[in-house]
Amino acid sequence: MPTLISTPMRPKTNLLNFSRADMEVFFADMGEKPFRAKQVIQWLHQYGVDRFDAMTNLSKALRAKLEEVAEIRTPEVLIDQASADGTHKWLLKLDNGNSVETVFIPEKNRGTLCISSQVGCALECSFCSTGQQGFNRNLSVAEIIGQVWVANKALGWDPLANGKNERIISNVVFMGMGEPLLNFDNTVKTIDLLVDDFAYGLSKRRVTVSTSGVVPALARLKEVSDVALALSLHAPTDELRDVLVPLNKKYPLREVLDACTNYISGDTRRKVTIEYVMLDGVNDSVAHARELAKVLKGVPSKINLIPFNPFPNTQYRRSSDAAIVRFREVLIKNGLITLTRRTRGDDIDAACGQLVGQVLDKTQRQQNKRATG
Ligand code: SAH
Ligand code: SF4
Prior knowledge:
This protein is an alpha/beta fold.
């Protein structure tokens, strides 16, 4: 088994990269008992501690040893924006000058955090600003779970200080930047932490992986996890989906829907959430709705219609409210559970890939100015 302890030749080990199983290996390598893993996971993720000297149930000697070989390093908040409707959006700085965004959406009975799994995305969906930025790199576990850690803190969660361990974040969705199933191992380890009772303790129904349809990874995911699944479908035919979600050329619609059905098989209460972005004049006609109802026959699903969020230089427009209502009615008439996602945080552009886009645009503008001025 590879050792997880750093050596003088290697930088310190960031303990936020570890699931509980990894942490057990780490402590075993140090000659420590497995229950240390549980304790440290609790300090990090239940109590939001980022200093070894606060871990009072570890001996002084062990804390000193950890100080030497390990660190607790979270992403850094670059921008924190709060919308009038309570939505929060953070731009987080990572190593090597990269940044990602995380969005918190409060609702009556829940608080949903939308997290990123990659810097950019390689899949180039034509209506997605992240996809148009290209792919940079995968996020580490520390960078993915770190978004939950940082958002919790920014929202005022500090159980050690105020004695309360109420979770403000009740749901986590992988709907920020990137394709989580193309950063498979780190996504799965993050899920492990999210549902671990010694870490975030969320129920598996409250953690949702959203994918554009990476078929082989869906089969692998079923083997290791049973969290909720959302599929970014966006089109009822291969012809149109090839244009909107180019990954469709590799994994066509029928294969993707079968893989999703297989993922939730074995539990008749489960449903796949079908995400469908509403693009004016592209995929929003009554005929498209009828076609969609047809292809979803036999797929236990509920549909989420997402009004398109425009970004600079996009060729697409958001469907009109009337078109969205009409589309939804056809689906409902066909017996499909269909919701329209409310647009939230419009005043802070709390949509996929947009804040990073703005920061990049601004940097670009400044560079251009410098070059021309
Ligand atoms: N890569 C994954 C998860 C991140 S994208 C996926 O594609 O599912 C999260 C959701 O935001 C997806 O359903 C995606 O299609 C949608 N999305 C992307 N760009 C959007 C835009 N400009 N307006 C509305 N929804 C968008
Ligand atoms: Fe990537 Fe998802 Fe955007 Fe497509 S919609 S480019 S898969 S982040």
